[in-house]
Amino acid sequence: MASVLVPVLYVGVVVSSLLLFSHFYRKRNAGKIYEPYFSSHPERDVYVSLLQKTDPPTNEALLKAALVRRAMTDVSRVVKLREDKPALQNLLQKGSVGDDLWNSLLQAEKELEAEILEVVAEANTFVEGWGTIIFQSAGEMIANEKMRSVYEETAASRATKEQKYGKVGTKIDLPLPQSMVMTGLPPPGHPAHAAALAAAAAGSVPGSGPGTPVKPPNGLMPPRSTKPESVASSDGESHDTTSPSKSSKKKGKKRK
Q: What's the pLDDT at 35?
């Protein structure tokens, strides 16, 4: 019986000691103030100071502009937290960073959620429903500012690169390729192209006689026909003209 009670008592003492340690550790960390993840929020301070100004009261357009600038800062902080949280979690699992930084990030998330709700409520006080689209407009304005900054820095970056790598060499003007002269019909679009096609369809090209055969565009003449030609007589009948050698052979056969 004593051999069974000893391990049970040992386990009970260990568990109770762990519970007491965790209780005092959480109680100590609950009252601990972590270093803020973001140093300050100047845009929020500017909006609050303009809102509290009463003599004279701040113009509504100026208050709207300050609220949009505050929303732009909130959007940039949300993007930064989304980018930093996975990397910080991996480092925390590996033991590369302490719990203080992780708790600071979690605290910044809670503060940012309350800040977003406050901005939405303030936007709805100016125009009903503006709180649903104010952060979308703020994101578009951030993208526009990034593009404008890149455009404005182009001249300065070009000057630094020219000093580092030297100026771009002078351009070389290459001669234009000469057009090839081709015999035959003019190319399509040429003023004489239509006239040459009409002349070819009529059976002759400009500058040739009535009996001159048409020369094709490639410069080659078609082979002459070896068949006997038919000649029309005055009485309207056609007679085939044969060579003298064939006619003499026929006469010799008749004589025999």
A: 81
Mean pLDDT taken over the chain: 76
List the Cα angle 88/89/94 in 5-degree steps: 95
Q: Are 80 and 108 in contact (CB under 8 A)?
A: no
Within 166-204, where are the H helices? 193-202
Averaged pLDDT for residues 163-179:
66
Beta carbons of 77 and 36 less than 8 angstroms apart? no
Which residue, among 120, 123, 100, has the nearest Cα to 112 in the 3D structure? 120
What pLDDT is stored for residue 80 in this prediction?
Answer: 94
Spatial separation of the C-alpha atoms in residues 232 and 229, rounded to whole Å: 10
Contact residues for 43 (Cβ-Cβ < 8 A; gap 6+)? 66, 69, 70, 72, 73
Bridge partners of residue 54, in order along the sequence: 57
pTM: 0.53
